[in-house]
Design brief:
The protein has 6 helices and 2 strands. It has helices at 22-27, 32-42, 44-54, 77-99, 109-137, 160-174, and strands spanning 10-12, 18-20.
């Protein structure tokens, strides 16, 4: 077996074993932060489909009330946006918890920015998927008023997913167990 031409930095752990250098753990061999961000954004498609299935003026599986199935009913507009807001909050909290790292490894600022940007992309994908489902499978004629069609009335809802990711990462790091200083670091 041959030795690598470039020496690989090795970090000694407290137990005496060799481990990968911090920069190798942080970004991984294939850029785990980028893969994680892609997965977060890709979740927008099933979230958008779920929004159309659950929300009023979509399939309305959540309430089942036939009066809320019609998009021309003004009472469906707020619940339709709230269903998407709830789905975004759930997806953002889960994604933020996954992106917040582990007890031994904090996320880099690059990973946090990627996760929040992926949440914004996922929100846009979810919105577009829900609108597309409404166009394909909806029965509403939106020629009289565009709000009758399955869509989003309050665009501020799109900020919930990335905001939930940021808050989840912040809370995860805030309430994480404090790291023990290594032998070279001063105790706080």
């Amino acid at each position: 077996m041959t030795q690598p031409a470039v020496p690989v930095p090795v970090q000694r752990s407290n137990d005496g074993g060799d481990g990968p250098a911090p920069q190798d753990r942080e970004h991984g061999a294939g850029g785990s932060g980028l893969r994680r961000a892609t997965a977060i954004a890709a979740v927008g498609v099933p979230v958008g489909l779920l929004w159309w299935v659950l929300a009023p003026s979509g399939l309305n599986a959540l309430s089942g009330d036939p009066a809320l199935r019609n998009g021309s009913n003004l009472e469906t507009w707020l619940p339709r946006d709230l269903v998407l807001a709830g789905l975004f909050l759930l997806a953002g909290c889960i994604a933020g918890a996954l992106a917040s790292g582990t007890k031994h490894q904090e996320p880099s600022s690059r990973d946090v920015v990627l996760a929040v940007a992926a949440g914004a992309a996922g929100a846009l994908l979810a919105w577009g998927t829900g609108v597309l489902c409404g166009l394909w499978w909806g029965t509403e004629d939106a020629s009289t008023n565009a709000s009758i069609a399955f869509s989003l009335r309050s665009y501020a809802v799109l900020a919930i997913w990335p905001a939930a990711i940021a808050v989840s990462i912040f809370a995860g790091r805030l309430f994480a167990a404090p790291r023990k200083p290594s032998s070279g670091e001063p105790a706080a």
